[in-house]
């Protein structure tokens, strides 16, 4: 089932085009690595699919009732909040359900018999939801993730605004993982993690049953956790099945084929030009030469330009 569909996306900044008629889809359970050189538009793409940036053209469609979690390098935290309160805010919707449940319980004593059945049924649904999402072991889950990312050493009562930039990113990552959304959008999550924390995050993502899109320059990490690569280059977005090493292997073959095709086009153009130059003055072959000159004028330059663009030259 498709969770996210992006169709005919075109976007740029001023005179600089970033995407040109790009399409993308994310299926349930896919672990995607979004790769490309700096400046090709990876973070811009994330901002567009999360609605922070409107594209010039195209359509972005999420499946209904999908919960999206985005690790944004530019997120801020509110002064006065502790590490523990930020992490527990990942379960805010469950705390709201608990409050609703308590209110229903308070009203039960005054309810009419015909109302009581409906209220008891609603209580049962809420209770099942809280149990299913581990509401009654939230403290243990918070402690587990905090320990795994080195936050326990800082103290869960620590004010988040007193933390360094790297420590804040750890807090935001921990909150995001505790939310366990239907799709994770991760932009360089290993930037502020040491080897032990990266190893834990790798295991977590390998076992993550939901989908995620990951931007990372850490190639070994990418290889360990993704099964699909989307490559951004020359305003295009191309899909490759497999890890990063597999993508590199297929990409190099594709690039070599494009370069060979370009060289062949250049050779053909060179031969046509040479024939025209040698035969324009000869009466017997002048008509043939002029015909080839027209071919050059009509197709040669266009093919050369296309070939250069496709080969990345």
TrEMBL record:
Residues 4-259 form the ABC transporter domain. GO terms for molecular function: ATP binding; ATP hydrolysis activity. Keywords: ATP-binding, Coiled coil, Nucleotide-binding. Residues 248-275 form a coiled coil. PROSITE patterns: ABC_TRANSPORTER_1 (PS00211), ABC_TRANSPORTER_2 (PS50893). The keyword Nucleotide-binding applies. The keyword Ribosomal protein does not apply. Pfam families: ABC_tran, ABC_tran_Xtn. It comes from the Bacteria. Gene3D superfamilies: P-loop containing nucleotide triphosphate hydrolases. SMART domains: AAA (SM00382). This is ABC transporter, ATP-binding protein.
């Amino acid at each position: 089932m498709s969770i996210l569909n992006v169709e005919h996306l075109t976007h740029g900044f001023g005179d600089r085009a970033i995407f040109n008629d790009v399409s993308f889809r994310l299926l349930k359970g896919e672990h995607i690595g979004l790769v490309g050189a700096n400046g090709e538009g990876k973070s811009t793409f994330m901002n567009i699919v999360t609605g922070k940036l409107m594209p010039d053209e195209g359509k972005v469609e999420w499946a209904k009732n999908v919960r999206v979690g985005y690790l944004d390098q530019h997120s801020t935290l509110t002064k006065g909040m502790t590490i523990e309160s930020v992490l527990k805010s990942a379960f805010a919707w469950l705390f709201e359900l608990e409050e609703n449940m308590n209110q229903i319980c308070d009203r039960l004593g005054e309810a009419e018999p015909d109302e009581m059945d409906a209220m008891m049924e609603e209580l049962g649904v809420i209770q099942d939801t809280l149990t299913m999402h581990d509401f009654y072991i939230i403290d243990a889950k918070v402690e587990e993730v905090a320990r795994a990312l080195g936050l326990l050493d800082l103290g869960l009562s620590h004010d988040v605004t007193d933390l360094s930039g790297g420590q804040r990113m750890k807090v935001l990552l921990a909150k995001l993982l505790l939310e366990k959304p239907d799709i994770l959008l991760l932009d360089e999550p290993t930037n502020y993690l040491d080897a032990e924390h990266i190893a834990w995050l790798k295991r977590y993502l390998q076992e993550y049953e939901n989908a995620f899109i990951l931007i990372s320059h850490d190639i070994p990490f990418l290889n360990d956790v993704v099964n699909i690569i989307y490559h951004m280059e020359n305003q295009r977005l191309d899909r490759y099945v497999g890890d990063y090493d597999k993508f590199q292997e297929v990409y190099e073959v594709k690039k070599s084929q494009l370069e060979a095709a370009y060289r062949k086009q250049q050779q053909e153009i060179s031969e046509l030009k040479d024939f025209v130059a040698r035969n324009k003055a000869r009466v017997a072959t002048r008509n043939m030469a002029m015909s080839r000159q027209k071919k050059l004028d009509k197709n040669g330059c266009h093919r050369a330009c296309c070939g250069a663009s496709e080969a990345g030259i």
